[in-house]
Structures are given as C-alpha cells and as structure tokens.
Amino acid sequence: MYAVEVEGFEKPAGVCGLNVLDEEPGQPVELNYALCPSAWVAGSRRVPHGSFWRGDARRLAVEEIVAITQEANRPSQQVLERLGFAHQRPMTRWGSRQRWYALSLRERGGSLAPD
Predict the structure, then answer these.
(1) Which of 56, 3, 13, 61 is nearest to 31 (CA)?
(2) Check: CATH 3.40.630.30 for 2-108?
(3) CA torsion, points 19, 24, 25, 30, in degrees to nearest 10?
C-alpha cells in the first residue's frame, strides 16, 4: 500500500495499492484505494495514479487488475473508468450493492509480465 497525498489536505489523505487475490502467477489482483472523507472530491480527480501500480503489476506478473466499488459511489467509478477499467458485473458484498470492474493488461499491448 502507498500513502496518497492530495494537495491542500493533511498527509496522508488516504492509501492505495494492489491486493493479491490469488497467489498463482497470472491471477488478477485488486486495486484498493481509500481517501479520508475531507479529500473525497479533490482526491477522486487525482488518485489512484496508474504509474505506481504498473510496476507492482510487472513484479506480480498479472494479466488483469480488478476493483470493487459501491454502486452508489459514482466518483469512484469515474476514477476507475478514467484509468481504463470496464464495469463487468453488479454484485452484493459487505451488505450493499457493488460494481466489479476489470482492467485487462493484455488488451493494452501485452501483459505487464517481466520479459
């Protein structure tokens, strides 16, 4: 996990990182991010920036990154969509409606697996 800094807010404003869903190489990992409520509006326009987790994806040799967000959380969905994630399916988890997103790294010119 990485600390998230948002200009004008106390540091850190949140956290962001990849969570391995399965230890097998090539399996998807989940992109997790959370911001302090006071940073939601400004932070949702800026994070999570893709450069840091692309290096992590290379080290993990993953072909897909997934993300889950609450159905009611449109700003979070917009962050994922700006990063290239596509909505895959609705689901119920943690007692509320969620949206499952996925980013295929193969569709972006090949896997980010090490050469």
Answers:
(1) 56
(2) yes
(3) -20
pLDDT in tens, 51-81: 666 777 777 777 788 999 999 888 889 888 9
pTM of the model: 0.73
d(CA 18, CA 32): 6
Q: In what order do the strands lie in the sheet with 2-4?
A: 2-4, 14-20, 29-35, 64-70, 96-104, 86-93
Give the model confidence (pLDDT) of 8-58 as tens digits. Answer: 776 787 788 888 776 666 667 888 888 777 776 654 555 555 666 677 777
Structure tokens at 76: 């979070």
71 vs 96: CA distance, rounded Å: 8
* Max Cα distance, the chain (Å): 42
Q: What is the rounded CA–CA span in Å between residue 75 and residue 52?
A: 21
User: How do the domains of the chain map onto residue ranges?
Assistant: 2-108
